[in-house]
Amino acid sequence: MHIQTFLAKSGVYSRRETARLIDDHRVTINGIVCSRQSIVSDSDTVHVDSLPVPDPAERVYLAFHKPEGITCTAQQSVEGNLNDFLKWESRIFSVGRLDKASTGLLILTNDGSIVNPLMKEEEAKEKEYIIETSRPVSETMIKKMCEGGLLIKGKKASPALAEKTGDVTFRIILKQGLNRQIRRMCRAFDNHVVSLKRIRISHIQLHTLEPGEWRHLTEEEIRQLKYEMLDKS
Question: Which EC class heads this enzyme's classification (predicted)?
Answer without folding.
Answer: isomerase
